[in-house]
Write a structure and sequence with these properties.
The complex is a heterodimer of chains A (451) and B (88). Chain A is built from 18 helices and no strands. Chain A is an all-alpha fold. Chain A is globular, with a radius of gyration of 24 Å. Helices cover 67% and strands 0% of the residues of chain B. The chains are: A mainly alpha (451), B mainly alpha (88).
Chain lengths: 451, 88
């Protein structure tokens, strides 16, 4: 039985109930960056894409890099939250909502990059009116649409009991919370409905998430461009997405742990477990990268080798080797032995991975276009202040959306924490007993008895 | 809100069907459109089904009101005693 007067988790409601000066400073700083981005975009809208560094043959640059990067980070929520839920990992409880919020917010920003890259945003109507499903770009639009819808549903449904708490405890935004709470009273039937819906969504969202980044990779791999036309791109992109998603989640956890005093909820053990996942993904990423480049090098096709050497020792070598350093060397060194200063090491590795994964997207997109297969002249890409401004504005917009979310809803799921205290402990003990020898045998089904 | 979900997902399904019809009319490899929509449309309809199930399940139960409200509805003193707790 849950005590309705339990105020142990009052700190989770504190950011909603009152606003500290730090919040206003953060909003102010982010707003400045967003203003820079807005001015940059307005300049581009007014004068055309010529104000950017984009030109023939490099028609994809920062914007497409940002698009792939942000869509990659969106794997934080769904895969981490859904997989940990399905595997009934109890340590997930303070982490799932943060992860799910990252997914929803970053998908809006990522999809917006395409709008910016179009130059003329009214051309987006052509996708709706004249879209062709032969094009991987339409596959992209469809899969991202499905993923965004699923992520919003997967974020909202587990929030309902917490919204009911806000409805009951707060005086402000009463109508808003009452509508969203859908009449939640916590009755047994409502709990059953909610649990069932969450379980269905956790299962459904995983293949959607995998398909999204596979389809994003198909935009590149379905072409015949050197070092794009690769069968490994699907799993390579998905691996990279999970990798960057975990890193983004860790950074968000550290930020809000500090800002909102959540040390008793986000403990070093959570960072240790996520750090171990990050280490595994770093090794997996390295394996895929090694396989990708070895295959291209061993084949020795002239067009592929031009791009290969441009990355390995040519004009793109700082970005390529920077990618290897930040995605592999630094994370492995930080994470292979997590002794003391766990959170510091995991945060360092995560920040390094975020930089590295952005570099990886850049290294995939730009060098191939700079040394094209068709007989265009080679081109070097130099982003202008417009692209830098748009990039900074996009990151700031994501951070602002996230910050505003934490002012409206608890960033850690209160009901899941309480459920963990009251039900989770007992469930874990029962489960453990079924794994260990010399404990009471569980009741076997008829089919199991034959084995 | 359920209505908004129906409109939104219904709009996406309508759009996908429009793309199939365009490809068919132009005789422009409609199989690609049909193949993709065989996966995409059921996914969207499943999402819609989950949303409608949650709305119907929660709002319908509130309308029935046959069980005493449990945590976290702590507005009334009588809620502190009795009522089912939050459990699986």
């Amino acid at each position: 039985m849950v005590d309705a007067t339990d105020n142990r988790d009052a700190i989770l409601l504190a950011p909603i109930e009152r606003t500290e000066p730090g919040f206003y400073w953060a909003v102010g700083l982010l707003s400045l960056l967003i203003l820079w981005g807005a001015i940059a975009y307005w300049t581009q809208l007014d004068e055309g894409l010529g104000v950017t560094g984009l030109h023939q043959p490099v028609s994809w640059g920062f914007y497409v890099t940002n698009f792939v990067f942000f869509i990659g980070i969106s794997h934080a929520g769904t895969l981490i939250s859904a997989i940990l839920r399905l595997s009934r990992a109890e340590w997930r409880r303070p982490v799932t909502r943060m992860a799910e919020v990252i997914t929803v917010m970053v998908l809006f920003i990522g999809a917006g990059q395409i709008l910016v890259d179009l130059g003329r945003p009214d051309r987006i109507m052509n996708i709706i009116r004249y879209g062709r499903y032969q094009s991987p770009l339409l596959w992209d639009a469809t899969s991202i649409g499905a993923y965004l819808t699923a992520s919003i549903v997967y974020l909202y449904i587990p929030m309902i009991p917490d919204i009911a708490i806000l409805r009951d405890r707060l005086r402000k935004r009463k109508l808003f919370y009452t509508v969203l709470a859908l009449g939640w009273t916590g009755s047994e039937r409502q709990q059953k409905v909610l649990n069932r819906a969450i379980a269905i969504m956790a299962v459904l969202v995983i293949p959607i998430a995998v398909s999204v980044h596979s389809v994003v990779s198909f935009v590149f791999s379905m072409t015949l461009q050197p070092m794009w036309h690769s069968t490994i791109f699907g799993p390579y992109f998905v691996t990279g997405a999970i990798f960057s998603g975990i890193a983004a989640l860790i950074v968000a956890m550290v930020a809000f742990r500090k800002a909102y005093g959540l040390e008793s909820y986000l403990k070093p053990i959570h960072f240790r477990y996520l750090g171990q996942l990050l280490l595994v993904m770093s090794l997996l990423w390295f394996y895929f990268t090694f396989a990708e480049y070895l295959t291209g090098y061993y084949g020795g096709a002239p067009e592929e080798m031009k791009v290969f050497w441009a990355k390995w020792s040519g004009p793109f070598r700082p970005f390529f080797w920077g990618m290897v350093l930040t995605n592999f060397l630094i994370p492995v060194l930080c994470l292979v032995r997590l002794g003391r200063r766990t959170i510091g090491r995991v945060l360092t590795a995560s920040l390094s991975v975020l930089v590295g994964m952005w570099l990886e997207r850049f290294i995939i997109v730009v060098p191939t276009l700079s040394t094209p297969r068709l007989p265009f002249g080679e081109g070097i890409y130099w982003p202008t202040w417009v692209e830098w401004g748009e990039t900074a504005g996009s990151f700031a917009l994501f951070a602002l959306f996230y910050l505003l979310f934490t002012k409206l809803f608890p960033v850690i799921s209160i009901w899941e924490i309480r459920e963990g205290r009251e039900v989770g402990l007992k469930e874990v003990e029962e489960r453990l007993l079924t794994y260990l020898p010399e404990t009471a045998e569980p009741v076997l089904m008829e089919t199991e008895k034959r084995w | 809100m359920a209505g908004a979900a129906v409109l939104f997902i219904g709009g996406i399904v309508t759009w996908i069907i429009h793309l199939i019809r365009t490809a068919w009319r132009l005789k422009d490899v409609p199989s690609a459109s049909i193949g993709i929509s065989l996966v995409a449309i059921p996914v969207f309809l499943t999402l819609l089904g989950v949303v409608v199930y949650v709305f119907w399940g929660l709002l319908g139960d509130r309308a029935r009101g046959d069980e005493a409200p449990a945590w976290p509805a702590a507005r009334r003193e009588s809620d502190r005693e009795g009522g089912p707790g939050w459990k699986r």
